[in-house]
Automatic annotation (TrEMBL):
Gene3D superfamilies: 3.30.70.270, PAS domain. Residues 86-138 form the PAC domain. It catalyses: 2 GTP = 3',3'-c-di-GMP + 2 diphosphate. SMART domains: GGDEF, PAS. This is diguanylate cyclase. The lineage of its organism: Bacteria, Pseudomonadati, Pseudomonadota, Gammaproteobacteria, Alteromonadales.
Amino acid sequence: MLSINKNTVADFDYIKDQVLDSIDSFIYTKDLQGNYTYVNQAVLNLFEKSLDQVIGFADTNFFDLSLSKELKNNDREVIEKGIRVENEESSFIRAKNEVRIFKVVKKPLFDLHGNVIGICGISTDITVEKKLQEQVAEQSFLLDTMLNNIDSHIYVKDSERTFLYVNTRTADLFGNSAANIIGKKDIDILPKNIADHFYTSDKKVFETKTKQVIEETVKDEKGNNCHYISTKVPFNQPGKLPAIIGFSTEVTELFELKEKFKQLANIDSLTNLYNRRYFTLHIEKEYLRAKRYSHPMTLISIDIDHFKSINDKYGHPGGDQILIAVANKLKASLRQTDILARIGGEEFSIILPNTSIASAIQFAERIRVEQSELRITGEWDSEASISVSIGVSSLLTGDKSFDELLSRTDKALYQAKKSGRNRVCHL
Ligand SMILES: Nc1nc2c(ncn2[C@@H]2O[C@H](COP(=O)(O)OP(=O)(O)OP(=O)(O)O)[C@@H](O)[C@H]2O)c(=O)[nH]1
């Protein structure tokens, strides 16, 4: 049989106090007036008071209650309703001169007849945890705001092609919500050919474990080409599948602008034919190709006769219109592989790859006739007509550079001029 004597109770109280005092949580009881009837050591440490400075005293001595609203409300709720309250309290501690946040559990204390005679509370300081949570929430908000407003598509995808993250821009591009995309595979979200196209470069990151910068071109739903610069970096977390973080920026406008600039640099603005710069680049290329494969290559030089007099007769703007008409007629005579350029004022050249001198002479003669039959109308009374002189020359086995071909063609043109114009000469 268990016998309890005075000493056993004292021992038990002593042990209980030791246990309660060794707990980091704040344990306390208060009477109905809100005066403390018990506090453990943690409470004394928090208040920086001794036991007799706390027992019998109310919270107003230890908290700034104007800044500790939940404390009073929670206490009132427990006492008035006789219920257990579990809540968070943010309280200003006078001794520490700072606000601390507590997770509190407060219960009513009853007498033998079931009347509420006070409250018992256990509070745990969660200030650091809360601050960390706030910091994480703040950083996550900041990151979300940045990722969702940046002009790039950002996504995280694992090696099994499952999206782990997409920003709003990516979700919009895929025509779905981020919540619907995350957790799904690219092939479940995108048309197979597009998903596979993206996965080809994803795979490269998984295989090489290094960052890849790729230019990607994808057709949108209207069939237009969209150009992207994509940077994909490996993202590995212990215990998880390898993943990549992708940043894709649409550069369609820039790409098209670049292409336009490239074109403009090569195009003559008056006639829209290639200019001398493009011609020079290409004649060298064609020359090297013809040399390497021992293919024939012929050059034609065309010069409008007495263009100075045409300018004098029709004025400079009239002369421009005639140049455009001549250019258009020349363009219409070309084969797909021929390269036509305006290389000077009223001078044009045609590179004829894979063409023998005999066929080139025939072609030049056809051009000469077509040009002489041109009737050009404009802001003048009669129809304007012109003639052209043409020089033709082919690449010879002994040629050391394309300059030799160029100079032979020029000489042939000079001969055509010298021998009366409106004719084709060849060398
Ligand atoms: N309208 C116009 N004229 C140009 C342009 N570029 C050059 N010219 C003119 O073309 C004329 C070329 O004259 P020339 O080189 O003396 O030769 P030509 O009068 O054609 O005589 P031949 O070539 O000997 O038959 C000059 O009057 C230039 O001012 C241009 O872009 N527009």
